[in-house]
Amino acid sequence: MTEEQTSTEQTAPVQPEQAPAESTQPESAQPEAQSQPESAQPEAVPAEAPKKPRARKQSTAKKTRTIELTLTVTGTADGEWQADLMHAGKRIVQALPVAAAAVSKAAAELHQDISNTIESVLNEARQQHEAKLAELEAEVERVRKALAELES
């Protein structure tokens, strides 16, 4: 065998294998690709046609915008009251002093249940203050007696 024959034999088997493989794949891929969209499109069109989006009925209910305000009223054992106001997570008012009478009046304006609860807290605070006042008055009386003894 000559060099030409050897090179031809080596390239000849390689070329027919590659050429038919290359030509077979694109040809077979192209008809499948073309047949799939054609068959998919007719099926998709009838399937989509009955599924039309329905128009939503508009609600007859009145749409109201809600506003959230948080009012926190706190009291101390000394009878001092303060208010904090928050709107949308932002503190608007902080530690505003409020009179106990104003707290009672505001609670009465809101609701009876709220008023009853706050009044019971206020009554308890009144009783504590009256007890403290009685102690202080008794101490003042003792100091007056002690002062009177020293003057005599």
From TrEMBL:
Region (Disordered): 1-67
Pfam family, one: DUF6319
Keywords: Coiled coil
Segments forming a coiled coil: 119-146
Residues of the signal peptide: none
Basic residues bias (residue ranges): 52-64
Biased composition (Low complexity): 36-48
Compositional bias ranges of the Polar residues kind: 1-13, 21-35
Domain of life: Bacteria
Keyword flag Coiled coil: yes
Alphabetical list of InterPro entries matching this protein: DUF6319
Protein name: Mucin
Organism: Saccharopolyspora spinosa
